[in-house]
Amino acid sequence: MSLEFIGYIGTQLSSEIIDAPRSGLDLAHVEHTARIHEDGGFDRALIAFHSTSPESILVAQHAASVTRRLGFMVAHRPGFTQPTLAARQLATLDVVTRGRCAVHIITGGNEFEMRQDGSFIDKEERYARSDEYLEIVRKAWTSEQPFDHHGRFYRYEKAFSDVRSPQKPHLPVYFGGSSDAAIEVAGKHADVYALWGETHEQVRETVARVRAAAARHGRSVRFSLSLRPILASTEAAAWARAETILEQAREIAARKGKLDKPAPGNVGSQRLLDAAARGARLDKRLWTGIAGLLGAQGNSTALVGTPEQVADALLDYRDLGISTFLIRGFDPVEDAIGYGRDLLPLARAQALTRPDLSLRGAPRPEPVAA
User: Fold this and answer.
1) Under 8 Å between Cβ of 101 and 72
2) What does residue 94 show for φ and ψ, rounded to 5 degrees?
3) How far apart are CA 96 and CA 64, in angstroms?
4) What is the pLDDT of residue 109?
5) pLDDT digits (tens, 9 = 90+) for 115-137
6) Residue 111: beta bridge partners?
7) How do the domains of the chain map onto residue ranges?
8) Which residues contact 115 (CB under 8 A, 6 or more apart)?
9) Closest CA to 231 of 287, 188, 157
10) CATH classification number, 4-228+306-360, choose in 1.10.340.30, 3.10.450.50, 3.40.50.300, 3.20.20.30
């Protein structure tokens, strides 16, 4: 199974340990990090979506304009744009970038953020809406004739798109969400199912659930795992760096009054907090420190060690069925440079020589608490 690496292009330099004032959109930062990811050998870079952030499709278009090979995974929240229009926007972007785009569908588990953009329906309804939304988007991407649609959330007559993705049958669809409703929609529509950096045991369980959901629709799905690698020249130095990151994040969060956040409502964050409750160090080198500190608000678990050790740990996840790794650092620029220089070449080289247990039905790695 070949490996895919996805990085992260933020709209400004910030993270849990970089306390930057909101600047909206820093074009110089977007351009710089896009070039870093291309030069570092990343396959794609994520352009995130939030209810107050710059628009992800437009940011991706600008990042594409300063690169030639780098692909993009454009986060998109269904329900705020008509699906026929979204299909044309994404297909247009894929034409403009000459087939370098994918879309990451995030239905949304944060009620406050959803309401900022005017969505007041509950989680079950949101996933039902996403299901219908993606059905229409796929029709717009692939239908050779105008089509009608009369559904629960959308209604169209003679819908059609003149613009088509150069990728066949269409640009890839990544999908996130860990609830039962999310997994059902993923099984029906996802080309790649994305989950956060969980333990081996949790990943094995999720992969099985998604595969079963996809099988009910006669489909197969690939899998992506999101992590925050912390690298150093020695293992001791890497763990020391992790502790420094934790203290920096604690100080910034305390100053901003973000240490006592309410329990998250989305299942993905709850699963990360369940892992954190078992300990800060799990499996070979999974670190839950930031997830436990800040309430697992998104991609917040790390693999800690030397580049060789972290590459080996990534391949443990490959043995569980993971073929894509979405990695970003707590220092977004310097870590991306380090990943491209030190981690990606090692992981790819090890992948060529180490047997892929996911293809052979061999026993999977078992979690061992550190």
Assistant:
1) yes
2) -70, -35
3) 9
4) 65
5) 877 778 888 999 999 999 999 99
6) none
7) 4-228+306-360
8) none
9) 287
10) 3.20.20.30
Please report, as a single letter, which amino acid is at residue 234.
Answer: T
Which residues lie across from 182 on neighbouring strands?
Answer: none
Of 282 and 366, more confident: 282
> What whole-number distance in Å separates Cα of residue 193 and Cα of residue 200?
16
Q: Band the pLDDT of 360: cuts 50, 70, 90.
A: low
In tens, the pLDDT along 188-219 reads 999 999 999 999 999 999 999 999 999 999 99
Is the bond leading into 355 cis (omega within 30 degrees of zero)? no
Q: Say if residues 339 and 7 touch (Cβ distance below 8 Å).
A: yes
The arrangement of strands across the sheet holding 286-287 comes to 230-231, 302-305, 286-287, 281-282
Q: What is the mean pLDDT of the chain?
A: 93
364 vs 318, more confident:
318
Distance CA 94, CA 74 (A): 11
Q: Which residues pair with 322 in a beta bridge?
A: none
Torsion of CA 132, 99, 341, 36, to 10 degrees: -90
Q: How far apart are CA 195 and CA 345, in angstroms?
A: 23
Q: Say how far apart CA 332 and CA 121 lie, in whole Å.
A: 34
Q: What is the DSSP letter of 204?
A: H
The answer, yes or no, to whether residue 182 has pLDDT greater than 90, is: yes
- Tokens linked to 338: 């380090």
Q: What average pLDDT does this structure show over 5-28?
A: 93
In the DSSP assignment, the letter for residue 263 is P
